[in-house]
Amino acid sequence: MTRKRRSFTPEFKQEAASLVLDQGYTIAQASTSLGVGESALRRWVQQLTDEREGIFSDVLTGPRRADLPRLPCTDFFLRSD
Fold it and tell me: Is the pTM of this model over 0.85?
């Protein structure tokens, strides 16, 4: 029998990470309390830390992706000036 993979909203991830960063919970305490894996929470904490420092990953998810303006697709690498 296979288990269905759980998914979490960006808002849940941010709130979970803020428990660690802003409210002083340890990763272990927060993950146990929320019922999520420590490695997932550790990743969310790192992503929120990076976002707060102005460092963004290559993959934007959730509301952050919607905030980006649509840029025209160009053949920049194919042009030879």
Answer: no
